[in-house]
Amino acid sequence: MRIAVVTVVHGRHGHLLLQHEGLAASRRPADHRVVVAMDDPQLERWRPAAPPVPDVVSVEGDDRGLPLARARNVGARRALSAGAEALIFLDVDCIPSPELIGSYERVLADPRTADDVVCGAVTYLPPPPEGGYRLEEVAHMGEPHRARPCPPPGQVDRGHDRYDLFWSLSFAVSAQTWHRLGGFEESYVGYGGEDTDFGRVAQSAGIALTWVGGADAFHQHHPVSRPPVEHVDDIVRNATIFRRRWGSWPMQGWLDALVARELVTRRPDGSYAVASALDSVLDVER
């Protein structure tokens, strides 16, 4: 099976370098490595000495936010045009374990799970120690996300009905399944919504969501806001798109928290709008 690993990037070059080191240490090497540079001209010239040599593709930015959905689709098209039979998507912050590619391959090579959307466990790492993360130590520095399945190595949890748990940090699909899904919905721009939409598309198509043990990834620490106040516009815009497509609201917890902060208002018809005083409120939040 010819496997491509696709990563979309804007900044976070240090995280990308450590991810590359992880891929270089993989027990089952990637056959093709696609890096999509989103409005990141510096990355277009990136040519690391260690394999896998990246195939860098450029995507223009968007004034509304990072075009994450479009960038993933561009990366997938490049990999498939080069002959990929399976796609592994890794967030730029994720360091793959040495067994990640091989674990995904075994599930996608099994006729019982070959057509599934396959996810592996992701562990959020604490801030790096002095000198930075070391590949041989990250597996012992945290625990996998508690809200998502985490089968033991070698085991598979198939047919999981919680499609809202899908996330694009680390997942794999066959080329055939990718074509059935049609990729990510590109009307989502910026933070939030496109992952939940992708899971809903899989559910509506009758494609199983499967979690595989052993395909571990380790998410490098970076500061976050809770709620993500810097993404208010994105959240409201993308949640509204999702509501129009599927009839329900995603990111309900974030929306409620933003309403409580008076960054977002809920209209009488149940829709959401960015508060008129957003700029002044965000100045206080910052």
Automatic annotation (TrEMBL):
<feature type="domain" description="Galactosyltransferase C-terminal">
    <location>
        <begin position="161"/>
        <end position="214"/>
    </location>
</feature>
<comment type="similarity">
    <text>Belongs to the glycosyltransferase 2 family.</text>
</comment>
<dbReference type="Pfam" id="PF02709">
    <property type="entry name" value="Glyco_transf_7C"/>
</dbReference>
<comment type="pathway">
    <text>Cell wall biogenesis; cell wall polysaccharide biosynthesis.</text>
</comment>
<keyword id="KW-0328">Glycosyltransferase</keyword>
<keyword id="KW-0808">Transferase</keyword>
<dbReference type="InterPro" id="IPR027791">
    <property type="entry name" value="Galactosyl_T_C"/>
</dbReference>
<dbReference type="GO" id="GO:0016757">
    <property type="term" value="F:glycosyltransferase activity"/>
</dbReference>
<dbReference type="InterPro" id="IPR029044">
    <property type="entry name" value="Nucleotide-diphossugar_trans"/>
</dbReference>
<protein>
    <submittedName>
        <fullName>Galactosyltransferase-related protein</fullName>
    </submittedName>
</protein>
